[in-house]
Amino acid sequence: MALQIRVFGGRNALVGANEALLCALLVVVFLLGGTGADANLRTLFICIAASALLAWSLVSGGWEAFRKLPRLAQVALVLIPCVPLLQLVPLPPDVWSALPGREAAKSVFALIGATDEWHPLTLTPRSTLFALLMLLAPYAAFFGALTLDDEAQKRSMTLFVALAGLSILVGLVQVGSRGASLDFYNTAHRGNLIGFFANRNHQALMLAIAGVFSVALVTLGMKNRLAALAWSAILSITFLGAVIATTSRAGMGLAILGLLIISCVHFSSQFSRKQWIWL
C-alpha cells in the first residue's frame, strides 16, 4: 500500500518528491547520459538518480498504478528486462556448444581449458549486464510518471521540451563550428547537430519525442483552437527541421510518424485532456 503523507494544501509529499526526482533524473540523463558505450562515473550518477526515483515511486503509488495498467502493458514491462536477464543465465556445456556462432568462443575456451564450464547465452556478459543496468532510467521515469497528476505530468513534459530546445541550441553551435565547439564526445558524428548526445540517431529520437510533447502541451494549454493549431504547426516545423539537421533517417521517419499521429489526434474531439497527457 502506498504511503500517504499530507502537507499544506492537501498535496501528497511523496508524490511531490516523485516529481522533483523525475525532473532531476531528466536533467542528469540529458547532461550526462549522451553516450552509453561503457560504464563510467556519469553512468553511476544516472543509476543512482534512477534508483532513488524508482524506489520512491514504488512506495508512493507506482505499484498500485502499475496494477491498473492494461494487461498487455504489464506483460511488456515484465518481459523487456527478461531479454538481457535470460541471456545471462549459465547454460550446460553441451547446450552452449551446440548453439550457432560459438566457433571462435569455443576455440578460446579450449585454449584456456574452460570447455567444460557453464557459460551464458551472451558472448559478452559485461555488455549484456550493462544493457540491463541501462533499463533503470527508463523504468524509473515510467513509474515516476505513473504517480503524477495531470499538472505534474505537464510540468515534466515541459522540462523535457525545454531540455530538447537547449540541446538544439547546442547543436546549432556544433554545426556552425564544424564540431570545434560544444562537442562533448569524440565520435564519428562530430560536427552534426547532436546536442548533448554522442550519436545523431539518439538526438533525433529525443527530438521526435519532444516534438510530440510540444504539440500536446500546446493543445492542452491553449483554449483558442486556431492559436493552438498555429503554434502546433510552428513547433512541428521547428522540431522536424532539427531532426532533419541531424541527418538521421530513422529519426526523420519517427518524427514524421509521431507528428502525423499527434496532428490527427489534434483534430479529433474524442480525446480527453487525460488521454492527451498519456499520448
Number of helices: 12
Rg, rounded, reads: 22 Å
Gap from first CA to last CA: 28 Å
Total strands: the figure is 2
Oligomer: single chain
Average pLDDT over all residues: 85
What does this structure look like?
The chain is mainly α and 279 residues long. 69% of the residues lie in helices and 1% in strands. The protein contains 12 helices and 2 strands, in the order H-H-H-E-H-H-E-H-H-H-H-H-H-H. The chain has helices at 13-32, 41-67, 71-87, 93-97, 103-111, 125-133, 136-146, 150-176, 200-221, 225-246, 249-266, 273-278; strands at residues 90-91, 119-120. The chain has a two-stranded antiparallel sheet with strand order 1-2. Helix 2 runs parallel beside helix 7 and helix 9 runs antiparallel to helix 10. It starts with 12 loop residues before the first helix and ends with a helix. The relative contact order is 0.10. Residues 1-11 have low confidence and may be disordered.
